[in-house]
Write a structure and sequence with these properties.
The chain is of the alpha/beta class. The chain has two domains: about 210 residues, Rossmann fold, CATH 3.40.50.720; about 160 residues, N-(1-d-carboxylethyl)-l-norvaline Dehydrogenase, domain 2 (Orthogonal Bundle), CATH 1.10.1040. An eight-stranded mixed beta sheet has the order 3-2-1-4-5-8-9-10, with helices on both faces. A hairpin with a 2-residue loop joins strand 6 and strand 7. The longest helix is centred in the middle third of the chain and has 23 residues. The termini are far apart. Bound molecules: nicotinamide-adenine-dinucleotide. Nicotinamide-adenine-dinucleotide binds next to helix 2. Keywords: NAD, Oxidoreductase. One of its GO terms (cellular component) is cytosol. One of its GO terms (molecular function) is protein homodimerization activity.
């Protein structure tokens, strides 16, 4: 009997979940901060949150990960905000994930496939994942959502978390909401909800991974359109029209790709709320506004480098990926707004074409949306 008692704390500690955050940009750092505030309070989690840092050398000559660990602040991607002493920055990807059974993926989507390849076979057998990544990969055989890439490459289940979540506002602890999308296992979804939920960050779950993930991905394309409208100073009515048309295309595109996508998902935080916040604030809107103000004469690459200080623009790349899907599937004419955003981004059309998109498509095909 006595030996059982003496082993109890060991088993208790072994049963606790360990969290690793893979990514440390603007949202990655805020996610780590949110999670770290909860792991301190929740007895089922180890306090420490490991955060993988894509290492870079700062102008001071110091390594970013070392500075984060010294100052408890991501001075490059989230300056002025303390992350919590239990956040440990780790520049070694494999080391960062090795002990964790709860993996939170939050990097720009173009890096996700490479990251998954690097940790293939190196994670715990009982690991679970959640993706906060907005975007998709387009392959020859069709589009792949990031959660699917994670599941397939790592052989683990993957939920998603999306919502009206401009990272800097959450860092200030202003109230917002988010949606966890899950496939089958409600219990795992609730564990993620528990890990993220705080009094100022209200998280709920829906059984619709693809719907939630596509909302988060596609709204960045609509935000580019909203930015064009702002840059051309067309006013709020026009922007509202673009948002409505964009939401309609988001819903139609998602349902064509996955018939399982639910209508109600578009009314969750990941749907209409994220669309609104991204079209009002956010970096996609901001860069697209500048693009239109310059009459499309400066490229998005240039504007991203100049305006975002290392943060990545997702909407332009997503517009290209969506366009590829539309071309492959013969759906171009049914999605005039999505198609036009891409044409403007690659400077085949002027920014003003954003409100003339119907001229580039056939009216009758849009009626079916
Ligand atoms: N920032 C937001 O407000 C916000 C909100 C919700 C969702 N998101 C989504 O979260 C995801 C991550 O965005 P973020 O804001 O944390 O990042 P970010 O755009 O602020 O920063 C870019 C990150 O990419 C890293 N990076 C650069 N080159 C890399 C490489 N070759 N390999 C791996 N990493 C590299 C950088 O070190 C940095 O951490 C994106 O999908 C984004 O759409 C962002």
């Amino acid at each position: 009997m006595s030996s059982v008692f003496s082993m109890a704390p060991f088993f208790e500690s072994e049963n606790k979940s360990r969290v690793a955050v893979i990514g440390s940009g603007n949202w990655g750092s805020v996610a780590a901060k949110l999670i770290a505030s909860n792991t301190l309070k929740l007895p089922s989690f180890h306090d420490e949150v490991r955060m993988w840092v894509f290492e870079e050398t700062l102008p001071s000559g110091k390594k970013l990960s070392a500075v984060i660990n010294q100052t408890n602040e991501n001075v490059k991607y989230l300056p002025g905000i303390k992350l919590g002493k239990n956040v440990v920055a780790d520049p070694d990807l494999e080391h960062a994930v090795t002990d964790s059974n709860m993996l939170v993926f939050v990097t720009p989507h173009q890096f996700m496939e490479g990251i998954c390849k690097r940790i293939q076979g190196k994670i715990r057998k009982d690991a679970q994942a959640i993706s906060l990544v907005k975007g998709m990969e387009v392959k020859r055989d069709g589009p792949s959502m990031i959660s699917t890439i994670i599941s397939q490459k790592l052989g683990i289940s993957c939920c998603v978390l999306m919502g009206a979540n401009i990272a800097n506002e959450i860092a200030q602890e202003n109230f917002s909401e988010a949606t966890v999308g899950y496939r089958e296992n409600k219990e795992i979804a609730e564990k993620w909800v528990h890990l993220f939920n705080t009094p100022f960050f209200s998280v709920s779950s829906v059984q619709d991974v693809e719907g939630v993930e596509l909302c988060g991905t596609l709204k960045n394309v609509v935000a580019i359109a909203a930015g064009f409208v702002d840059g051309l100073e067309m006013g709020n009515n026009t922007k509202a029209a673009i948002m409505r048309i964009g939401l309609r295309e988001m819903k139609a595109f998602s349902k064509l790709l996955f018939s399982s996508v639910k209508d109600n998902t578009f009314f969750e935080s990941c749907g209409v709320a994220d669309l609104i916040t991204t079209c009002l604030g956010g970096r996609n809107r901001k860069c697209a506004e500048a693009f239109a103000k310059h009459g499309g004469k400066r490229s998005f690459d240039e504007l991203e480098a100049e305006m975002l200080q290392g943060q990545k623009l997702q909407g332009v790349l997503t517009a290209k990926e969506v366009h590829e899907v539309l071309c492959h599937r013969g759906w171009l004419e049914s999605f005039p707004l999505f198609a036009t955003v891409h044409e403007i981004c690659i400077r085949r059309l002027p920014p003003a074409a954003i409100v003339k998109y119907s001229e580039h498509t056939h009216q009758h095909s849009r009626a079916s949306l």
